[in-house]
Prior knowledge:
- The chain is of the alpha+beta class.
- The chain folds into two domains: 4-101 and 335-363, no CATH class; 166-315, no CATH class.
- 41% of the residues lie in helices and 17% in strands.
- The protein contains 13 helices and nine strands.
- It has helices at 4-17, 25-31, 44-54, 61-70, 78-87, 89-101, 181-190, 218-223, 259-276, 282-287, 304-311, 315-326, 338-363, and strands at residues 115-124, 134-141, 146-154, 170-174, 196-200, 208-209, 232-238, 248-256, 290-295.
- Helix 7 links the parallel strand 4 and strand 5 (196-200).
- Helix 1 (4-17) runs antiparallel to helix 3 (44-54), helix 4 (61-70) packs across helix 5 (78-87) and helix 6 (89-101) runs parallel beside helix 13 (338-363).
- It starts with a helix and ends with a helix.
- The relative contact order is 0.13.
Amino acid sequence: MQTAASVLTDQFVTLLERLPADLDLDRLAQETGAIRRKRELVDGASLLRIALARGPGGLSLRQTAAWASMMGIAGLSNPGVKYRLNQASEFLAALVEHLLAAKVPGANLRWPSRALRLADGTCVSKPGSTGTDWRIHGVFDLGRGAFSHLELTDRHGAEALERGAPQPGEIRIGDRNYARAPVLQRFRSQSDGKADFVVRLGWNALQLTKPAGNPFDLISYLQCLPVGSRPHEVNLHAAVGRRGEPALAVRLIVRRKTPEATEAARVALRRAAAKKGKTLDPRSLIAAEFMILATSLPKNGYSAKAVLAVYRLRWQIELAFKRLKSLLHIDELPTRTERGLRSWLYAHLILALLCDDLSQEFLDSSP
């Protein structure tokens, strides 16, 4: 049976051929300080090879040292491998940026000249930890079926729609964690208004007003909606920050859930409140009956029904993160040191991006 380490041995030249043609690994290793003096480890390709063997290859420090010596890559001790990989985190991070910069936008899936991209994040914990230690932020291009952006932060790195620069014409889709008016405003500004968003909304996420400036009571609005599954919509403004700052124009789209989905949502809310020892706000139970979206898309050309359908595609990025964990085991951190973990995680992200590119050949083939 072929292991991950044997794949690196047998097909590493093929792997190098998948890197951007203008990428000089030796120069990148020197610029990032990963290789300062060419002693045991003399080039960037060898450093990448060792990082992949130690990371997604699944080798321990001792096994990596023995494997590198056996293959004639470098004569390193266990501490030597650890030191080299600790020094390589910036090199590997820069390589991730080069791989992302070389990606081309995917095909249009629903609307002409509009690319659909999904935003989400996943948490990774150190051995023995009960909380979040690292967070991987991703943007997933539905047209390519692959990540267009991957970013590694510590636990303080908040999820934000602006992670991964918006491209003109794209529509970025996010869940409740991305419904923050200042961030949504910056996302729109960074693309000069040429990129749009669709985010799910909690009932108290935004401070909403009517176009005339009167306060908008979302809960009262929900309670007045007629029974049925037909979507409803209303144009509003969301306060961005200090008084006098231009408000964010949003289009609210609301659809009533099925009784089964409503009851499941309410049960989850009651359990979460009981677990935290908090009193559940009755307004949360009212809002649980509805799917609420906020978007910058205009009504003309983007019907409420179509926007709701597009949002349902968001599970694709959740599957992509599950593949990182179930197939590449990116959540099985082998060490507790920050520099070692950064190097280990970036090596996994490099392989994930290369796998995305490889999968395009299968997606483009018939059937």
